[in-house]
Amino acid sequence: MIDKFLHQLRITEPELQEEIRKNATITEHDRGEFIIKNNNYIKVLKIVLEGKVRVYQESDEREILIYYLNTMETCTLSLSACFEDCKSTVNAIVEEKCILLNIPVRFVHDWNFKYKSWNIFTINTFRESYHHLIHEYSNLAFQPLKDRLFDYLVSKAEQDIVYKSHQELAKELGTTREVISRLLKKLEANKQLRLGQKEIQLLK
Amino acid sequence: MIDKFLHQLRITEPELQEEIRKNATITEHDRGEFIIKNNNYIKVLKIVLEGKVRVYQESDEREILIYYLNTMETCTLSLSACFEDCKSTVNAIVEEKCILLNIPVRFVHDWNFKYKSWNIFTINTFRESYHHLIHEYSNLAFQPLKDRLFDYLVSKAEQDIVYKSHQELAKELGTTREVISRLLKKLEANKQLRLGQKEIQLLK
DNA sequence: ACCCTCTTGTGCCAAAAGTCACAGGTTTTA
DNA sequence: TAAAACCTGTGACTTTTGGCACAAGAGGGT
Lengths: 204, 204
Known about the structure:
2 copies of one chain form a homodimer. Helices cover about 45% and strands about 30% of the residues of chain A. The first copy, chain A, has helices at about 1-10, 15-25, 75-80, 105-115, 115-140, 145-155, 165-175, 175-190; strands at about 25-30, 35, 45-60, 60-70, 75, 90-105, 160, 195, 200.
């Protein structure tokens, strides 16, 4: 399991491989479990070896998706916290049963200047996250919700089907269930999709 | 001028100082000049030694502020581009006459693993920008425009006064001039500020 | 079969934000 | 100093989004 991770991230230095094996732990988590909670200190960097984690911000009853962590991805905010002790400003919850690699923060920090491949990993994580977030940011600023919803469905579809409830979509897009229901109805009337129970089929 | 920069960023390695002096150029730019244009390739990392630069995204007639670059700050997106050749997705325009330090991208990339202080500079730039952007993102998602406007004024005030037109505020907050005018009127009626010509005085 | 929870649909109304149109200031500049 | 360009205010209207209430359907478990 770790080998696959080392390979995918192109971590080739034997010393670094050894350090990771020695200092990292592997844990399993079921759907619904919190990996990171808002306002808690971050002690370990978590890398998703398998499964899916949803990272979001909340405010009162609303939520908004920051990003999903898929296989071989790490939480950029945790990574950031490795460079300066700080509290989390987000929540992370397991969406699909997952296996995590946990690396205590002090190593993450040291390795950055010690191992070239770790340095690249760090920089790339920041870069990709930053670009992704800017993109989401301007979508949020410029696009009407209807478009954001449709784009989101397209991006999340597997074989043109999205298996999510309206409530889940609402939370990911930072709005309420009724609004999503109505917009979906409009999209259906527009023949852009077909609605089922917890199942949205994209057309064409 | 460069010395001040080296000192502020705690760049202590003599070799790196030497490299910067040798390879970087200094340029001056007047208000209104474009530093970076959307869709252009990024060839040099620009660091603001003096002055102020506004970095924003645009869509049709609308704009939205990504961040301001103040003294001794660099454009995170340019920094990112140093690690992979790519086009800019933003515009950067000079707001206050400024002096820039220009470093060709290939150096920026190499120095990251070669000089510890440069590595720290890079990581810190990414970290701070990322946190800032997440903060803006959830404001955009959760806060009504009226609150965003007021918070923005507070953050931009010098001695409780903001010297900006409604049009400028609209562009920075991603909305239209009329909306800003009306919200400002409400805030004035609410005794939170007093309106003048291109001048908004915050009260209390 | 029955209960409970989750899911979806929708009517009605309110608030927030955007658009269009126009009028009268102020500042810049030629 | 007169024209042009920018700045502010505002009425009237539309669209978008949100909040509340209620009803009906689906699905799971005991």
